[in-house]
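It is worth pausing here to work through a concrete case rather than discussing structure prediction in the abstract. The textbook approach is simple: state the sequence, then state the predicted structure, then interpret. We follow exactly that order.
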Amino acid sequence: MRVDSWLWVVRFFKSRSLATAACRAGKVRINGTIAKASAEVAIGDKVTWRDALRPREVQVAALLPRRVGAPEAATAYIDFSPPIPTRAEQGAVPQRDRGAGRPEKRDRRDLDRLRGFQK
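Step two, the predicted structure:
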């Protein structure tokens, strides 16, 4: 089964096109290697990607033929993701001074590092 289709079937993405876009952007990995949207996923594979709130890591437990309800979809994977951080754990949202202009490359790297997108 294709990884973009599986991510959509088990309800991690609202549409298959969003799952495909995440794969094309290089955000989805299967067993540690970057996966194209057409990459095949099998039972036992670890699929990881970065969600808006946290990094996600799941293990494929079942391959479903079509999109199903949330309780049934939850049986198709084993979730190893960290819990969703609370507002206090997220900390304050960084904001730039008014009139400071567009962020430079160094500023963007600092913001990405602060948000946890970069190591």
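Step three, interpretation. The longest strand covers residues 55-60. The beta strands are 29-30, 33-34, 46-50, 55-60, 77-79.
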